[in-house]
Specification:
about 40% helix, about 10% strand, two-stranded antiparallel ribbon, 7 strands, 5-stranded parallel beta sheet, globular
Length: about 325
């Protein structure tokens, strides 16, 4: 669910994907749109959601305390304060997901927001101390520019007291293939970096992404394509004006979900992204079972069970 249409400074060239709507968003449009799908999971995103002074009202309008949907607000954290965090929690937010690209000052430079990393370094632990476990997480998009830093990003998450979820870069966001390791990096170095993340995860450091999912990110970053996209079936976007879009990378707008599936989803052959949304909504039933068994094995201390169902690296039997 997109609550602002201007892209934030998340990437230097996101101006190629600017969407600007005139006027104010009507909360009723979201309430009706979201209620029609009875979703289990709603992500409030932008742009930068915290740029809106009424984002907690938006969350409150959709949330059902104690019930689904699971409400996540995705932010760059530049305007995060303990007060805003607590207001979002009170409104019904289950988790605040903060974007991270580098484990140090390079994050501020990459996002073009001076002082951003230093701000997060103070604000995240402070907010963690005010909330419950899993109230805050980090999200990291793996790119050709940061893949060597993935283990240190995991260590940073542990220092801040949060978990990290990974995703994979797509040229659809920036129209720049150099963000793929396929065009700008070393597949072997990427493999070693992901292996290091998996070892840290097995050692107990906080990584949400499953091993099987991490290896699929590896596959996409070196091949640039994974088919079978289920946009419009497994996930969709509710825009600020209430219209529907099958995915955030497609300039196609619909007022009716069935029309979207009929005119776009059933003809969709795109495989030019493999972001976390796809990776986690398109899992087959057996994969979901395996992931849950792996989590159970980890919780119960059954390391063999956890390794058995976590997934294997490419090229192994």
């Amino acid at each position: 669910m997109t609550v602002t249409s201007r892209w934030s400074n998340a990437f230097p060239r996101l101006d190629v994907w600017v969407k600007i709507f005139a006027g104010l968003v009507i909360l009723a449009a979201w309430q009706v749109g979201v209620a029609a799908f009875a979703p289990r999971y709603v992500t409030v995103t932008g742009g930068e959601p915290l740029a809106r002074g009424d984002v907690d009202d938006i969350v409150r309008a959709i949330a059902h305390p104690g019930r689904l949907p699971w409400m996540v607000v995705v932010s760059n954290g530049s305007q995060l304060t303990p007060e805003r965090f607590l207001k979002l929690k009170a409104a019904g937010m289950h988790q605040l997901s903060l974007s991270i690209d580098f484990p140090d000052q390079r994050h501020s430079d990459f996002r073009r927001i001076p002082g951003l990393f230093e701000h997060l370094d103070r604000a995240v632990p402070e907010c963690v101390g005010l909330g419950e476990p899993d109230d805050i997480s980090l999200n990291c998009c793996i790119t050709a520019w940061n893949y060597r830093d993935l283990p240190d990003i995991v260590r940073l998450a542990a220092r801040w007291g949060v978990a990290v979820n990974f995703s994979a870069y797509t040229p659809l966001r920036m129209d720049d293939p150099k963000g793929l390791v396929q065009h700008n990096g070393s597949p072997e170095e990427l493999r070693r970096s992901i292996e290091a993340v998996i070892e840290l995860k097995r050692a107990g450091l906080p990584v949400y992404s499953g091993e099987r999912t991490l290896w699929r990110f590896y596959q996409f970053l070196i091949e640039g394509h994974i088919g079978g996209c289920q946009a419009g079936y497994k996930f969709l976007v509710v825009n600020p004006d209430g219209r529907l879009t099958p995915c955030a990378m497609v300039m196609a707008y619909f007022t009716d979900h069935r029309a979207m599936q009929r005119e776009f989803s059933c003809r969709n052959t795109c495989g030019a992204c493999y972001i976390s949304t796809r990776a986690n909504t398109e899992k087959a039933p057996g994969e979901l079972l395996g992931d849950n068994l792996a989590i159970l094995g980890k919780v119960l201390g059954w390391s063999a069970l956890a390794r058995r169902f976590n997934g294997r690296r490419p090229g192994t039997a």
